[in-house]
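Researcher: Quick sanity check before group meeting.
Model: Go ahead. Protein one:
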Amino acid sequence: MGLSAAELFDELGKDYEIAYAGYTARREELDWLLDELPAGARVLDIGSGTGRPTAELLAAAGHEVTGYDVSPHMVEIARAQVPGARFEVADLRTLAFPAGSWDAVVAFFSLLQVPRAEIDAALVRFAEWLKPGGIFLFATVPADIENLEIEFMGKKAVVSSYPQEVFRARLAGVGLEVVRDRIAEFLPTHASAGSEHNLFLAARKP
């Protein structure tokens, strides 16, 4: 049985940030988001990890960033590294906010370790939390899998996902318009990591 998300990222800690530090595609998606956001936007970072690069870049640009991560160790690191943002320990499946609370919701790879039913439920909630005109920026590994045990950076994990076209349909189904869609390849700088085929999607709430 694979590690839970909390267990996995408590063990990986800064190694995760180091392995993905050179991921230019992720940085380019964040640069795009920065161009789209209004001044002083409220941004929710789901699965905020060490706070870098997402929360750090957004906070440096003057936005109000709140990050949630299921890993206490990651939250501890993020608080130390990115004092300009707020970070809390929480499971994305139990988070709740009033409708229209956020100008943007960012979820980079944070839905991989929940089953498909919980991916679907999370997408509904994220769409509800966005203000009109708000943006959902999402990244995952697109694949037709559920509860598949894999090895990730030398650790066992259980992952679920959908193919690219299914995610597009799911976002349309919760009332969001896909405005950006990209596949990127990346090889993390870790001895146990393999090449990744990643999907980045951005969708706007009318």
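Researcher: Fine. The other one?
Model: Protein two, sequence then structure:
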Amino acid sequence: MDAMETAGVPFDTETTQLFLIGPASVAVPGTATGLEHAHRRFGSLPWRDLVAPAIDVARAGVEVTPTQAYLHEILDPLLRYSPEGDALYGPGRALRVGERFFVPDLGDTLEQLAAEGPECLYHGELAARTAAHVPITLEDLARYEVIEREPLATAYRGEELRTNPPPSAGGRLLAVGLEVLAAAEPAPLSIIRAMEAQAAMRREAIGGTTHISAVDGNGDAASLSSSLGSSGGVVIPGTGIQLNNMLGETHLAGEERPGARLMSLMTPSLLLREGRPRLVLGSAGSTRLHGAILQVVANVAGRGLGVEQAVEAPRMHFEKGVAHCEDPAAADELEAVGYPVVRWRQRNLCFGGVSAVEIREDGSLAAAGDPRRGGGAVVVA
């Protein structure tokens, strides 16, 4: 097996993360079959209809936004690591604001996925292309299956939080933080102490995640997190499929045996009041995501903020004994009691990317996408 390679990603002038990438970093992908499993259990629209918008976007492309252009720039060594990635992501450089990004090969793959279901990714020609390009066997792909698990539950201020259970560590970290915070007002010092408790049990990790929160007209709620890690920098030729680097996240993968489920930090969550959803949320942000969710839950259930204010509010993060703060007043308060502080001049994607939906007392909905990562939200009457 080829060795993994190292690539650095600068989040700002002082913060760089190292990522292990390449074919050897790729684990068996599970998103497509997981989505199809959820669709069979809970969906109402035909599978083909759900895939159709993604086909259109892949073929017609999207105009690159400022946030996307920034991400293309800092992730460029990963995105264009392979010849296929180099061809996919632009003319020898990162795509810029206003340029169009499209993936016609992925449109064709999604067309097949719409017609045949996700089985085509685990058997047949597409599976053979994957096995030929990375050290994953046809047997590895064929035996992949969805596992349903009971959510992890914890109480916070008379309400119930349900979140991602083991082998994910993210949900347990969130629960620990809320348990510490439950007896205190959500002020900067108490939040940092909750984060200290999280840090005491957390292993360092890297990665990148996408999150979607949704509530429908019947009050049914879904919180979905999906991750490529940081991307393995590998694109399967002729398919547009970009693969993960989950085995390259060594602090998550460790020495896992073949067939084992990997740990993650993804933390899709629901806050329930009297058994019904009150807040649906989750976040991107690697080691920062459970802290971001902690603060949004505290802002809504502890401070009484609406979801838009709760997501927009300045955040903190505790890492290696240092408090990182978006809010100068919080930084002053923490410095006064002896914490080393890093002051961030503006909102930054390093502090996560929360997507959330709130169900208000009168049954109306409000939603927020995190401006730190160009997030969006829409409420349809």
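Researcher: One line on it for the slide.
Model: The CA atoms of residues 121 and 250 lie 26 Å apart.
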